[in-house]
Amino acid sequence: MRLPTWRVRGPHSIRWRLTLLYSALFVVAGAVLLAFTYVLVANSEPSLTAGSPPRLTGRAEGPSTPDPPTVASYVEKRLSVQRSEQLHELLIESALALAVMTVFSLALGRLMAGRVLDPLRTMTAATRRISADNLHERLAVAGPDDELKAMADTIDAVLARLEGAFEAQKAFVANASHELRTPLTFQQAVVDVTLADPDASVEALRAALLRVRAAGEEQERMIDALLTLARSQRGLERQEFVDLAAMVRERLPGAGSGAGVRVEARLEPAAVLGDPQLIERLVVNLTDNAVRHNLAEGEASWVRVWTGVDVMGRPGLRIENSGPVIPADQAAGLFQPFRCLGPERVRKRDGLGLGMSIVAAVVAAHGGWVRATTRPQGGLTVEVGLPPSAPALPGG
Question: pTM of the full predicted structure?
Fold first, then answer.
C-alpha cells in the first residue's frame, strides 16, 4: 500500500520544515536574549563578592597605614580577575542552556507543527476519498473561521461546482444520445418498411430516400449545434469588435420573411469585443427562436428587438415575442440543453433544443449575463448583457 505523501517525503515535508523554522526562530531569539544579558552584565558596576576583603601586611612593630595607591591597584586587579571568571562562567552556562533548549525546541516544534497540520492531513485524506462517484461528499470542516477553514470551504465550493458539472455532463450526454438516436431509428424504420415491400414502386423508393435524407440533415444540424455548444464552452479563440445592431439588422429580415411575424426593431449601436462567429450564432438563435416559438399561424404574432448601451456603458440585446402564457418558474430551464416549454409553444417543430443553451454558453464565454422572463400577457423576454469593453461606434 502506498504511504501518504506527507510520510514518504520525510525531512522534506511541511512538518519538518515548520519544525526547523520554529527551532531556528527559538535559537535566534535565545541567542539574542543571552547576548543582551551578557552585554548588560559586562557593562554593570563591578563588585567584590569574595568572602573577605584583602589583608594588607606592613611592618611588625606597631600599626601601619598601607599606601592608598597600592590598595586601590590591588582591589581593581582582584575585581577584574573575578569579573572575567564570572563572565566566562556565564558564557559557558548560557551556551549549554541554549544547546539544551535547542534540542527541546526541536521536539516541541515538531509536536506543535503536527498539531497545526492535523486539520490539513484530515482534509487531504478526505479529499483523496472523494472521487467522481461520490462528489456529493464535503469536507465540512468545523472550527474557528481561520485560514484552514477558508481553504476547506473553498475545496467544498470546488467540489460543488464539479458535482454540478458532472451531473450536467451526464444529463447532456444522455439527452444528446437520445436526440441523435431518434433520427437513426427513424431512418432504419423507413428503410426496413421500404425493403419489406417487394412491390415498392419508384415513387415509394424515392419518397423513402427523401425521408432518409431529411433525417440525415437533421442529424447534421444536431451535430453542428453540439459542436457550436462545445466550442462556446471552451472559451474565446479570437476577439474582434462587433456591432450588435448591424448584426441583428442583417438577420432580422431573414428571420421574419414568410413567417407572418411583425418585427419591431430599435437598433442603437452596441459595440462588443468578442468572437464574431459565436456572437453571430447568439443573434441567430435568439431571433430564430423568437419567430419559431410564437403564436400559431394566422394569429397576430410579433417580435420586438432592441440593441444599445445601458447607463453603465454595457452593450446589450433584448428580444421580446408574443406567444401563449408561460409559467414563470419554467423560464430558467430554457437554458438547459434539449429543454423546451412544451409543444404548444412551438410554431415550427424543427428546433433541436440547443439554441438557448448555446446562447447561455456564448454569453458566459464573453463574461456577460443572460436572463429570460415570462410576460404576463404571454410570450417571453430574453435580455443579454455583455462587458463594456468596446470603444464608441460612429453614430453612437
Answer: 0.54
